[in-house]
Amino acid sequence: MQASPIARTGRRTAGPGARRTRTALAAGLLTAVLALSGCGAASDSSDAASDERAAAPAGQKKADASAAGAEEGAAKPGAPAKRNPPAATHVIRTASLSVEVRSASKAAAAAREVAQNAGGLVADETTEQVDETHDSSHLVLRVPQDEYDDVLRKLSGAGKLLSRTSAAKDVTDQVVDIDSRIATQRASVARVRTLMDRADKLADVVSLEGELSSRQASLESLLAQQASLKDRTTLATITLDLTEPEAEPEKDEDPGFLDAVAGGWHAFLTMLRWLAMAVGATAPFLAVGAVLLVLWRLLRRRGGKAGPQEPPAGS
Questions:
Q1: 89, 170 in Cβ contact below 8 A?
Q2: 212 within 8 A of 193, measured Cβ to Cβ
Q3: Within a 10 A sphere around the Cβ of 227, how many other Cβ atoms?
Q4: Whole-angstrom Cα distance, residue 12 to residue 120?
Q5: What angle do CA 95, 113, 131 make, to 5 degrees?
Q6: Distance CA 192, CA 234 (A)
């Protein structure tokens, strides 16, 4: 049974309207969704912008505060400036003094007292007699660096200063280098000892012991250099020579009568002394000659008596 044309026409007319209605509804929904999405994006953008605006003043405030603090610090002349602490310096100080004093022994005792009061010591001392009336002393003093200038001034004023020399040598680089080498050498020795603890073979142990001995010897040498530098940079060395003045020659004066008498008497005594010496030297010869002369005379007398007698005349 076929449908009537009216019914077919009604279905045709109803189909396009429904489609338009659905299209309109879909467009409305899409518009609403897009509107909602746009509002959300706008709100997010506004929130982000507001956050940035809120953060910007805070950062600006901090920057302004820092700049103000810097300007305030620069404006205050009495504010201490922050500086890096200077590196420690190591200096070897030496000095040599030659002083003329009245008594070398007393001046040497005073120099010892000055060094000991300053916290130092006498490393060497020599006193000798130049002649029958003059002495001289040689001292090597070690004093702390802080007392070096004061001790040098006191020793220079002990008498008449004849000569003075001083020197200062900066060994900071050498001290730093030795300290670094000691640290490296100690780490090397520790590594070798660790390897010895882990070694299982006898050959490895023997080889490592030789290596350890070599590195330990190098470490001890570095430690000795470090100790020497520490001693020389901690205590300054002062060499002091003390001498006594020479006696002034006596001035010649014109001789007088008494001087002539004394000179004549001295010459007379000298002549007698020489005559006595001459007599003493010739006395043995004179004694022998006298004995021989006496014997010769005795023999001559006896010879005259023992001669032949002539007979009397007329007999």
A1: yes
A2: yes
A3: 10
A4: 128
A5: 75
A6: 34
Give the DSSP H or E segment for 91. Answer: strand 91-100
| CA of residue 54 relative to chain centroid, distance | 63
- Give me the residue label for tokens 């010897």: 217
- Per residue in 93-120, pLDDT tens? 999 999 999 999 899 999 999 999 999 9
Strands (E), 115-234: 121-129, 135-144, 160-170
Q: Edge-to-edge strands of the sheet including 91-100?
A: 121-129, 135-144, 235-243, 91-100, 160-170
> Is residue 232 within 8 Å of residue 143, measured between CB atoms?
no
Q: State pLDDT tens for residues 257-276.
A: 777 788 888 888 888 888 88
Query: Quick one: CA dihedral 43, 46, 50, 56, positive or negative?
Result: positive
Per-residue tokens: 115? 């060094």
Burial of 151 (0-12, 13-18, 19+ CB in 10 A): buried
CA atoms within 13 A on the CB side of 81: 5
- For 254, list phi and psi in degrees, rounded to 5: -65, 130
Q: What is the pTM assigned to this prediction?
A: 0.50
Amino acid present at 64: D
Beta bridge partners of 125: 139
